[in-house]
Design a protein that fits this description.
With 239 residues, the chain is mainly alpha-helical. It has 8 helices and no strands. The longest helix has 34 residues. The chain is globular, with a radius of gyration of 19 Å.
Amino acid sequence: MSWLEILSYIAIAIGIIQFLIITIDVIRHPQMMFVMNIVWPITGLYFPIIGIWFYFTLGRKDMKKQDHSHHSSHDTHESHENHEHHEHHHSKKPFWQGVIVSTTHCSSGCSIGDLIGAPIVFMTGWTIAGSVLFADYVTEFILAYILGIAFQYYGMKMNNNSPKEELKNAVKADTWSLLAFEIGMFGWMALSHYVFFSEPPRPTNVVFWFMMQIAMIIGFFTSYPANWILAKKGIKHVM
C-alpha cells in the first residue's frame, strides 16, 4: 500500500467519523434552519478537521442562541418564529463567519451532487467526446445545480414571498457561488485526471475519493469570495 493510499484512508476515515459525530449531535440538537441539519454533516464528511471545527464553533453558536431564545421568550408561537427568522437573516456572528456558514450551505449542495454524480458516470460507463472527465463534469454540475438551488430555496424561504419569487431568489443567490465552487473543484479534478496520475483513479479506489475531498475543499475556498460579494450586495444573507 502506497503512502497516498494510507493518507487517503486516514482522510476518508476522519471525514466519516466527523459525519457521524455531527449527525448524532444535530439529531439531539436540531438547527434553527432545517437544511443546516444536512449541511453540517456533509461539511464534516468532505472537510477533515476543519469541518467539525466549523460546526462546533459556528453551528453550535447558532444552537446556543436558539436554546436561549427558547428559554427566554414568552411570546406567541408566531412571534417566536419571526424572532428566529430575524436572527437567521441578521446573524450576530462577525460578517466573515456568517459568510463561512453561507459557503458551507452552498458547498454542501454541490458536494452531494458530486458524490452522487461520480458513481453514476462510473457505473454507466458514460463518456462525452470519449472522456469520462467531461461526463463527470456535466453530470455533477447538473446534480449540484439542482441540489444547490434546493438548499438555497429552503434556506431562504423565510419571507412571505410567493414560491415563484423564492425560487427566483434562490437561483440568483446560488448560481454565482455554485459556479465559483465548481471552478475550483473541476480544476483540481482536471489535474488529478491529466497531471497527477498516469492512470486516473476510479471510484472503486480510495485515492479517488481523497482527490474528491480535496477538490471539494478547494471548491469551498473558491466559493467563499463569491459568497462574500453576494452577501455584501444583499443577494444572499449571511447565516
